[in-house]
Write a structure and sequence with these properties.
It is a single chain. This protein is an alpha+beta fold and about 220 residues long. The protein has helices spanning about 5-20, 30-35, 40-50, 65-90, 100-105, 110-120, 165-175, 210; strands spanning about 25, 55, 60-65, 145, 155-160, 185-190, 195-200, 205, 215. The strands form two sheets. Strands 4-9-5-6-7-8 form a six-stranded antiparallel β-sheet. The protein has a three-stranded antiparallel β-sheet with strand order 1-3-2. The protein is globular, with a radius of gyration of 19 Å. In the presence of manganese, represses expression of mntH and mntS. Up-regulates expression of mntP. It is found in: Cytoplasm. Keywords: Activator, Cytoplasm, DNA-binding, Manganese, Repressor, Transcription, Transcription regulation. InterPro entries: DtxR_MntR_Metal-Reg, Fe-transptr_FeoA-like, Fe_dep_repressor, Fe_dep_repressor_sf, FeoA_core_dom, HTH_DTXR, Iron_dep_repressor, WH-like_DNA-bd_sf.
Length: about 220
């Protein structure tokens, strides 16, 4: 049985290789940044995961998941996103509260509980942040890939997912009344700093380039 930490590494690798621009490999520094750890610490864990045949990599080189590693990572991610959905929809947690709790619940080792949870929620395709929930057969619903920053002036779009799921950003979105499904029209782009003027419902907002790079839209 894998430790919770090992499962977290595999889940992080799945995110970086399957969801971040569809890359098949990730670098040690990419993984370290994602996990908030030092590259040397990450390298030690990767050595352990390689010995267990869950990852393929050379020291400080590119990393990829093996078939068995990907299967485990997919199951952990599936549980995490189902629990986030349950916490929001059933227990009425706000979307900035669910991640830390789901991080604990995702390590429960029960296939039956996971399938019952999925059925109870009526088999959702996406979690509260717009992230796709892996299916029991390993398939993944399509993920939005268009950044708000790439939408042209005078074009309209709909918020599909949040790339930055930090509590501070999610709370800021709530203050602006922006959530999954919110319709946005781009009124202006400022070339000097990449900021944008948006029409959200009837309100005009000016947001930073960092903000615009943190929302995925349809």
């Amino acid at each position: 049985m894998l430790s919770n930490t090992e499962e977290n590494y595999l889940k992080a690798l799945l995110y970086l290789t399957a969801e971040d621009a569809g890359k098949k490999e990730a670098g040690t520094n990419d993984l370290a940044t994602h996990l908030g750890l030092k590259p040397a610490t990450v390298n030690d864990m990767l050595k352990r995961l390689k010995e267990k045949e869950y990852v393929s990599y050379k020291k400080y080189g590119k990393i990829s998941l093996t078939r068995s590693g990907k299967d485990i990572a997919m199951f952990v991610m599936r549980k995490h996103r189902l629990w986030e959905t349950f916490l929001c929809e059933v227990l009425e947690f706000s979307w900035d509260e669910v991640h830390e709790v789901a991080e604990q619940l995702e390590h429960i080792q029960s296939d039956k509980l996971t399938e019952r949870l999925d059925k109870f929620l009526n088999y959702p395709d996406y979690d509260p942040h717009g992230d796709p929930i892996p299916k029991s057969n390993g398939k993944m619903p399509p993920r939005a890939t268009t950044l708000l920053s790439s939408v042209a002036v005078q074009q309209s779009c709909t918020v599909a997912a949040v790339k930055d799921t930090s509590p501070v950003f999610l709370q800021y979105l709530e203050q602006l009344s922006i959530g999954i499904g919110t319709k946005i029209k781009v009124l202006e782009k400022i070339s000097f700093d990449g900021s944008m003027t948006l029409l959200v419902e009837k309100d005009k907002l000016t947001v930073s380039e960092k903000f615009a790079n943190s929302l995925l839209v349809d």
